[in-house]
Structures are given as C-alpha cells and as structure tokens.
Amino acid sequence: MKYTVKTNQGEAVFSFTVNAQEWEEAIEKAYQKTKHQYSQQGFRKGHVPRKVLEGIYGVGLFFEDAFNEMFPQWYGEALKKETELIPVADPKVEIQSIDAKGVKFKATVVLKPEVE
Fold it and tell me: Which of 40, 71, 110, 113 gives the lowest tally of CB atoms within 10 Å of its CB?
C-alpha cells in the first residue's frame, strides 16, 4: 500500500494505492470470513470454492467486504506515520477505482485546528 497526503485549510486528503497482491490477500480474507454464508448445489454449505462463487455472482463479489475489512488497517497505518496530523472526525472515503488489479481511493478527514 502506498499513500500520499495533502493538507489544506484544516483538512487532510490521503490518496491510497493498493497493489494487486495486497488486494488479493484482502479478498481471500473476506472470502474466508464469509464463505459459510454460501451454498451451491454439488457442494456442502460453506465449502463452495471462491472461483465458483465468483463465476456465479461476479468477480466483485468480495470487493466490498474486503475493502471494509482492510480500510481501518490501511488508514491506521497512514495515521501512525503522519504523527503531526490529528483527525477529529471519521474520514470521508471516495473509491476512484476498484478491480482485481488493485484499489485506488481517497480519504478526506477534518484535522484538529491549530491554536494561535
């Protein structure tokens, strides 16, 4: 995961880029967490292979779960590195692109104002 930060008038905009390998790991984690919910004829409940599910429901089946699972970790890592930034609210997330090759998104957060 790579990110850049731009600050402007009490806001910080984090631009994240997650590569294909990290994104694949996140999707696999989401599949493992939710696979018990799916049943398909010919397979025991919870034992349907991921490729079969993606063939039936589409490649993006686990994208939302994977993103929701991993976003707090990615955002948390960025905040740990940017110690001078103190957010006062939850970030507003805007996904720019999401596919099997990776994810690009922005998170905009309001910062604690500086006292003069």
Answer: 113
Give the tokens for residue 32. 């493992």
What type of residue is 25?
E
pLDDT one-digit tens code per residue, 57-100: 999 999 999 999 999 999 999 999 998 999 999 999 999 999 98
> DSSP string spanning 85-105?
--B-SPPEEEEEEEETTEEEE
Distance CA 81, CA 70 (A): 17
CA–CA separation, 68 and 63 (whole Å): 9
Alpha-carbon Rg for the chain, nearest whole angstrom, is: 18
